[in-house]
Every structure is written in C-alpha cells, then in structure tokens.
Amino acid sequence: MVQYNRKISGFTLIEAMITLVVIGILASIAYPSYTSFAARGARADALSGLMNMANRQEQFYLDHKKFTKNMKQLGMDTDPYIVDNGFYEIDASVGSATKYTLQATAIGTQATRDTDCAVIQITSDGVKTPAECWSN
C-alpha cells in the first residue's frame, strides 16, 4: 500500500481573490489622490509662470512705456508660452498701453483633470482669478 504524505503549499483560490480585492480597494483610493496631487502640481507651475510673466511685463513697461502681448518680446521662445511641464500655455492680452491680462490655459490631460482651474488669470492691477486656484 502506498501512502501519500505530501504537504501541499501555495495559495488557495479564495486567498488569491481576497488579495486582489484588497489591492483593488487600495488602488481605488490611491488613484484619485494621485491625480489630484498631479493636477495641483501642474497648477503650481502655471501660477509660477504667470508671476514670472507678470514680472517680465512690468520690466517691459519700464523699458518701453507700454505692455506687450507678444511673449517673444518678453524673452520667451514661443507665443503663447508653454509652461515647462507642458500642461499650461500662457498668453497675454493688452487692453491699453497701461493694462494687461495674463492667462494660463490648461492643455492636454490637465484640461480634463483640473476643470476648476483650466483658465487662470492675473491682471496688471494684481487681480487674480479664480481666487480658489491661487490659494491652494
């Protein structure tokens, strides 16, 4: 008579399914947090770019006694200026020789994942809109 005395090692199907469910739950919690974090990071680069362009506009005004809507005149390679991370483009509009508005517009995936701050503006008067995009 032959006796089988082998010990079987490994995972059962139930253990594998429980592991997959736990991983799925963790992923469903982590992914929205990650995308929110990535959107805020891209927005911070846009805000930095807007402030940089506002400083360049003020310097341009000191030199030429007027503002410009041409980003190349402010020392940028492109018009509109694409922020370093590639998620926003910044463009200027000039209402008069003494007034300007800088606008950062989300492009690519940023436009869909950060709809509340898809368009961010700052004016020559220092008005920043939308306010909630500047405060975070």
Automatic annotation (TrEMBL):
Known InterPro entries for this protein? Bac_GSPG_pilin (IPR000983), N_methyl_site (IPR012902), PilE-like (IPR031982), Pilin-like (IPR045584)
What's the superkingdom here?
Bacteria
What stretches pass through the bilayer? 12-31
> What keywords tag this UniProt record?
Membrane, Methylation, Transmembrane, Transmembrane helix
The answer to whether UniProt assigns keyword Transmembrane to this entry is: yes
This one is known as Type IV pilus biogenesis protein PilE
Q: Which organism is it from?
A: Shewanella japonica
